[in-house]
Structure formats: C-alpha cells, structure tokens
Design brief:
Blueprint: H1 11-21, H2 23-41, E1 55-56, E2 65-67, H3 69-77, H4 81-90, E3 99-105, E4 109-114, H5 116-129, E5 145-148, H6 160-178, E6 183-189, H7 193-210, H8 225-238, H9 247-272, E7 279-282, H10 283-288, H11 291-301, E8 305-308, E9 311-314, E10 325-328, H12 337-349, E11 354-359, H13 367-376, E12 383-387, E13 391-395, E14 398-400, H14 412-419, H15 421-429, E15 437-440, H16 441-445, H17 452-472, H18 476-484, H19 494-504, H20 506-515, H21 520-539, H22 547-571
Helix pairs in contact: 1-5, 3-4, 5-19, 5-22, 6-15, 6-20, 7-8, 7-9, 8-9, 11-12, 12-13, 14-15, 17-21, 17-22, 18-22, 19-21, 19-22, 20-21, 21-22
The structure holds one RNA strand of 77 nucleotides.
RNA sequence: GCGCCUGUAGCUCAACUGGAUAGAGCAGCGGCCUUCUAAGCCGCAGGCUUCGGGUUCGAGUCCCGACGGGCGCGCCA
C-alpha cells in the first residue's frame, strides 16, 4: 500500500490537490446554477431542479462525464428536455475548469469532455493522497451508524451464510467509513434462555457418555462433532466432577463453559477471515443488567405494548406487522423478541442514530417485527435490515446439499481452509446481497486466469514487479520523478486515458455503492481497474527509453497500484507484491 | 393461503435506483510471448431480459396479472 502524501510537500502543491479533488463538485455547482436559470426561464422555482448527479459517460464516444438531469427536469417542468439541455450547454465552458467541451445530445443528455490537464491532475492527486485517495465526506451527514452482523448462536461453528454476512458487513462498514460515515460494528450472541440449556445438556450427554455413563442426547440437541470437542475439553479441565453435581449448577456451569469455548472459536475463525468487531454484545448481559424487563416495561408504559391472556404483547400491528407479537409469556419468561427489543433500545441509547442489521435468509420473516420494535421505541425508519441471501456450495459440476438436521453443514472454517481467505472474501462479496449465491469451490481454488481474485491481485503484483525492475536497474531518478508525478502531462494514449478515467471514478464508486448497500460493485470495480491496467500494460511499455514517458507511465502504474491496494483492502483481500 | 427475495447469453452474475447500442467472467472458436510477470492481451460468436397487459418521450428497472425457483409465516430460537 502506498503511503499517504508526504507532509513536507509545499503548501501550494497540496492546494492543487484539493482543487482537483473538488473539481467535480465545482462542475456540479456550475451546472446546478445553470439549471436554476433554466428553471426560472420555464417559470419554475429553483427548488424544482433535480439532482445533477454527474457521472462517467457510459460510452467514451459521448464524452467523459454525463448527466441526465435535463431529462428529469423536462419531466418535472413539462418542457422539452433537449431544449433544456441545449440551454444549459449553450453557456459553454465558462466557469467549468478542466472541461474542454460541453454538448447537449438527444434526448436530453449533457456531455462533458475533459482536458488532458484534468486527467493529469487525477494521477497527481492519487499519487499525493496515496491510501487516502478516494476518501470523501459524501455520507458524513448520516450520524453514527451501528452495523450489526453475523450474530450467531453460540452453539457451533459459523456456517457459510454467516461467512457471507461477515464479508458483507466488514466491507460495508469499511466502505461507509471511506465515504465519511461514522460506523460502529457489533455482533450479538444469543447466550441465554432455553437455547443455552439445550447446549449445556448436549455437551453433558457427550461428556457423561465419554465416562461410560451412556446418556442420550436431548431430542433437539446439537449433534455436531464440535460438541464432542467441547465435552472433551470440559473433561480435561474439570474431570468427572459434573457427573454427580446437581442439575441446575451443572447446567449453568457447562452452559457457560460451552459458550465461552464456542464463541472463542467463532472469534478466531472470524479473525482468520479478517473480520473483527468493535464490540461483542451478549444476550446474557442484557438480562443481567435488567434491560430486558426494563424494555418491556417501557413499551408497556408508552402504550405500545399491552397485557392479554397473562402475556405481554407488542402492539406491532400499529407498526405494519400483520399480527401483534408476544414479548413476555404468560409464565413470565421473555420470548426471543424481548431481549432483541432491549438490545436495539440499548443501541439507540448509546447514541447511535441509525441501525443496520444484516440477517441470514432464514430470518427475513423477523424483519417487520424488528422494525416495529424500532418504531415502538420512537425510532421509526431508523432501522434498516439487509438480508444476506442463501449460499449454495458447488464443487465443479456437483452441488453440495446442506442439511442442518443431519449435521451436514459446511462451515466457514472449512471453506476458508479449502480456498483461502482472499478467494472466500471475494466470492462472498461478489454478488448483490439479495441475490442467492452459487459458490464454486473448485473455481475458487483454481490458481488460474479463471479466478477473478487472482486476476485483480495479479494486476497489483505486476505493478510491484515493474517497480522492482526499476529499482534493480538503478533507475532511481526515474522513480523519484514518477512518485512526484512530474511528467504526467505526457499521458495521452487512449489506454492510458481509459485507465485514468477508471481511477478517477474510485471515490464516487465507493460512496455510491456504500449508499446503495451494494458492496459487490466495488468488487466489480476492482476487476475493471485490473482489466484497464492489464490492457494498458500490454500495449504501453512502461520502462522504455524515453525518460519522461517512462516516468509518466510509471506514475500511472503507481496510481493504479494505490487504487487496487485500497479497493482490495476494503474488500478484505490481500494485495500481494508478487505472485 | 399470506409475506419477503428472485427469474437477464449454455453456466454464474452485473446493469450505480426510469436513460444513450443490456454488459462481465467462465465454457466455445480464432489470433498474440527474442522487450517491464501469458495468473496477461486482442478478436469472433452467443439475448424477444420467463410470459401477458399497463404507466411515458423512454422500462431489465415502476404498476397489475400469470408461471417457475428460494425462504419465512409459534406464548420456538
């Protein structure tokens, strides 16, 4: 990864940087002003001007940047969009730094073409900002966001869907931060209630049986191999002391031990996967602090919960649910929903303005209920739930059936062991979250061009290789000039410009993808950068005889390396120096 | 039965929230290594976006209706 801009750069140099960083904003503002004029002309108020949303032109033949704002305005104002576009473009390129041409095109697009100086500035900006290049404050106004994901039961190893959720959550958090948002990540452990008792009893059955004291598993007990391992560890730690202990004491001690053991393993698996959390919250802690009762009482007091048939119900029908939901059973025990109400209330009370939860596909029926909770707590619309859809594993042609019942769940750990962290992270993130995902293990391990992970990493490694070559052949002065971006004005080859256009779009790509909760677009973008670089590399010799041209191309290679490393970092994939 | 997700090239998926000629990767076919990594590049072929209506200057995208796939609908967690 490139270092950030050295601090010894002269002030004027750094100001140049920010001018380029803001140049799109400048263009956006100028276009907006022209639209306001056009609105007045059409008898509309300035408020009726649509988003300009200047973005890269779809086809380079159209120009470098384009906006469809005139089309939107045409609809809004009931005017001919082309005429609006022509009026806006008719003012020419005055007050539009970096623009060489502006043009209106049917049915109402406005296209901008940029000067070569502008593109040179993009490369210089990337070199100066290094790892910070592409960062923005686009999402800085959202207030603190709490992103909860994985939230596994402490009853066994993490499965592949949780792997997908963790890729999604970790990358989304990184992207949101990159786009200026304040984000805290958190995971929740359901370590209370009947579930934990069942876990304790399952471990006890294995434990007792290992002493020759045949004990049947509970009916819905956890039958996985990992439970045997927990039992073995328990035996190693405590010997046979639990065989004769009273049931209550045994249950809580073994439950705690099992939870700690399994959670530690989950945490280790996640760390090996490059995923960490700012905080782990335990359901048991909500109970212990009295927050579960407090939440239910609060809901009762505020009239959004009521008592009926001896139970306490959430008035969820008032918040879009199709039926009311029980919070506290008639026997006094809370349902699953009550601690979740307490937990989400706690999240808000800790100062978070906006909550995002990522669930697995089996919990989407729970979404309405949870949103009802947020609304009942007085935070309507402040909870967003993303569903990480199902993952189907495939090895070559054969689909692997996964049955939770039979204990045949493929774990995240197994997948990571088989294909590696990088491939797993990339494959999980590579699809839209709401799309079901077919994960081909055979493809993911393949160390060949077929594998998109290697394709991107190879781009990075190739650039590193050029740098090594320059170093080894003693071209130190050249490296200096390249790092300073001294010759970037020499860049003009179509493939050079195509690559720069791509790099220029990095910040917008991250912020838009983060806003849309569509991190897969970043994976796609990384592939596009690699593609543009590989094309450039094949066609344009970097280390040639022309010193200035070599320096210019080396600058572009360095800038590309920076962006590739940055994108891979957000994706949780390593950026190797050689392959 | 009700709700959520989904249906796009042979396969796996995009399409930046209604914009320009629907794009990638695999698989298939044909080219490119005496020069910085061929884990690469260039080209060809492949589509009535499941089907039928509607909304409008414009629909893969929005609305209605079929049909197919996945998941969920407890005082379970």
């Amino acid at each position: 990864m490139q270092r950030a801009a050295p601090s010894h750069l002269p002030m004027s140099f750094q100001m140049t940087t920010s001018r380029f960083a803001q140049s799109l904003g400048v263009l956006d503002a100028e276009l907006r002003a022209r639209f306001v004029d056009a609105a007045a002309q059409a008898g509309q108020s300035g408020d009726a001007v649509p988003e300009i949303a200047l973005g890269p032109a779809r086809d380079p033949a159209h120009g470098d940047f384009a906006t469809a704002a005139a089309l939107a305005a045409g609809k809004l104002w009931k005017r001919n969009p082309l005429e609006i576009a022509q009026r806006v473009a008719g003012a020419g390129i005055a007050n539009m730094p970096g623009v060489s041409a502006i043009e209106a095109k049917a049915p109402g697009f406005i296209n901008l073409r940029m000067t070569s100086t502008y593109w040179a500035g993009v490369v210089r900006e990337a070199l100066e900002q290094g790892a910070a290049y592409g960062r923005s404050d686009a999402l800085a106004n959202t207030g603190p966001i709490l992103l909860e994901f994985v939230s596994a039961n402490p009853t066994g190893p993490l499965n592949v869907v949780q792997g997908r959720s963790s890729s999604l959550g970790a990358t989304l958090a990184a992207m949101l931060r990159f786009a200026g948002a304040t984000v805290h990540t958190e995971t929740y452990v359901n370590d209370a209630g009947t579930q934990l008792d069942l876990l304790a009893d399952s471990v006890y059955a294995r434990y007792a049986t290992s002493f020759g004291n045949e004990t049947p598993m509970p009916e819905d007990g956890y039958k996985g191999e990992d439970i045997v391992e927990v039992a073995t560890a328990l035996r190693e730690r405590d010997g046979d002391r639990w065989l004769k202990a009273p049931e209550q004491e045994r249950r809580s001690a073994i439950g705690e031990f099992a939870r700690d053991t399994i959670v530690a393993q989950q945490r280790a698996d996640l760390e090996a996967f490059g995923v960490t959390f700012d905080r782990w919250t335990f359901e048991s802690s909500m109970h212990a602090a009295g927050k579960v009762d407090a939440a239910v009482d609060w809901l009762l007091q505020h009239g959004v919960a009521f008592e009926k048939d001896g139970a306490v119900w959430l008035r969820s029908t008032e918040f879009g649910d199709d039926k009311d939901r029980v919070l506290r059973r008639s026997d006094g025990r809370p349902t699953y929903l009550a601690p979740d109400a307490a937990y989400h209330r706690d999240k808000f009370e800790r100062g978070n303005r906006y909550l995002i939860d990522i669930f697995g596909p089996d919990h989407h029926g729970y979404v309405t209920r949870l949103k009802a909770i947020a609304a009942a707590l007085g935070h309507a619309g402040m909870l967003e739930v993303l569903i990480a859809q199902q993952v189907t594993l495939k090895r070559g042609g054969e689909t692997m059936a996964m049955s939770k019942r039979a204990g045949q769940v493929v774990t995240l750990r197994e997948v990571v062991d088989e294909v590696g962290k990088d491939a797993a992270r990339f494959f999980f993130i590579n699809r839209a979250p709401e799309s079901q995902l077919v994960f081909d293990l055979a493809l993911a391990v393949e160390q060949s061009s077929n594998n998109p992970v290697y394709y991107v990493q190879y781009g990075h490694a190739r650039i590193a290789s050029i740098l090594r070559k320059a170093q080894e052949t003693g071209r130190v002065a050249l490296l200096e000039r390249a790092r300073a971006g001294s010759d970037v004005d020499r860049l003009e080859h179509p493939l050079e410009i195509a690559l720069i256009r791509r790099l220029a779009d990095y910040g917008r790509t991250v912020s838009e993808a983060a806003r849309a909760r569509a991190p897969h677009r970043l994976a796609e973008y990384a592939r596009d950068v690699a593609t543009d670089f590989h094309s450039f590399y094949t066609e344009c010799v970097v280390l040639g005889d022309d010193e200035a041209l070599s320096s210019a191309r080396l600058s572009l290679a360095l800038a590309s390396k920076t962006v590739l490393a940055s994108a891979l970092d957000l994706l949780g994939v390593s950026a190797p120096e050689r392959m």
